[in-house]
Amino acid sequence: MDSKESPESISASQTLDRAVHVMQVVVGLRNQGIGLSDVVKKVELTKPTTRRLLLALMGNGLIEQDPVSRKYFPGPEIYSLGLMAAHRFGIQRIAERSLARIAKVSGDSALLSVRRDYETVCLSREEGHHPLRSHVLQPGDRHPLGCGASGIAFLAAMSDEQIGEALEANAERLRHYPQLSTDILWDLVAETREQGYAFNRGFIFEGSWGVAVCVSHPTSGMPASLAIASVESRLRNKRHEELVALLMEEKAVIESMKIGEQVTGP
């Protein structure tokens, strides 16, 4: 039996991939919205093709178009699908109180992320009370592994062979971050493995620093991480070590919980 895919099958797969890419571009901007010309630039497809995909997504309620601005926004079906998929990511509910405690004690932004294939996806963000904040990472944002503290932590938890595969798969996207060369990423992996946490010293955006640790729990569905993001001045002079200790405390809380157990405490 011939195992090769038919041209029709390949064409359908390519269409689906393109539609998902278009949807991710629109959804990634959340309430900001995006116009047709900007979608075309981001997905690098022709205008007619992009328009056809947008119409198909609109027909299924996955995105919608504002009649005045003509910009595209996430549709109601995205919300419904998210609710149905939420049970796979029980780590988000379990980590909720930990994020709140981290933000309250540190005064900075606490973040929960997961690794999906070769990407880091931010699930939750809890704001601290300090007025100086880093607003680079928001829920729903996706970045190639190695970008940011969580991305570095995820890489360090992988085998060298897996890291090589990830860097190769993300080569094109990583070119947009010239400060993150392959050699630098390998050095960061070695550093993270040695000290037990990832430390981002503004490698992506100048002045935006962060620390992260990996977290494991059966409900996560995929590798997860806890992170603290802040401005450079708040993570200098060894303060980042105090924040790492705080992350480690909450990591232990999450990993000690049994499936179905609810977190207690303020």
TrEMBL record:
<dbReference type="InterPro" id="IPR005471">
    <property type="entry name" value="Tscrpt_reg_IclR_N"/>
</dbReference>
<dbReference type="GO" id="GO:0045892">
    <property type="term" value="P:negative regulation of DNA-templated transcription"/>
</dbReference>
<protein>
    <submittedName>
        <fullName>Putative IclR-family regulatory protein</fullName>
    </submittedName>
</protein>
<dbReference type="Pfam" id="PF09339">
    <property type="entry name" value="HTH_IclR"/>
</dbReference>
<dbReference type="InterPro" id="IPR029016">
    <property type="entry name" value="GAF-like_dom_sf"/>
</dbReference>
<dbReference type="InterPro" id="IPR036388">
    <property type="entry name" value="WH-like_DNA-bd_sf"/>
</dbReference>
<keyword id="KW-0804">Transcription</keyword>
<keyword id="KW-0805">Transcription regulation</keyword>
<dbReference type="GO" id="GO:0003677">
    <property type="term" value="F:DNA binding"/>
</dbReference>
<dbReference type="Pfam" id="PF01614">
    <property type="entry name" value="IclR_C"/>
</dbReference>
<feature type="domain" description="HTH iclR-type">
    <location>
        <begin position="13"/>
        <end position="76"/>
    </location>
</feature>
<keyword id="KW-0238">DNA-binding</keyword>
<dbReference type="InterPro" id="IPR036390">
    <property type="entry name" value="WH_DNA-bd_sf"/>
</dbReference>
<dbReference type="InterPro" id="IPR050707">
    <property type="entry name" value="HTH_MetabolicPath_Reg"/>
</dbReference>
<dbReference type="GO" id="GO:0003700">
    <property type="term" value="F:DNA-binding transcription factor activity"/>
</dbReference>
<dbReference type="InterPro" id="IPR014757">
    <property type="entry name" value="Tscrpt_reg_IclR_C"/>
</dbReference>
<feature type="domain" description="IclR-ED">
    <location>
        <begin position="77"/>
        <end position="261"/>
    </location>
</feature>
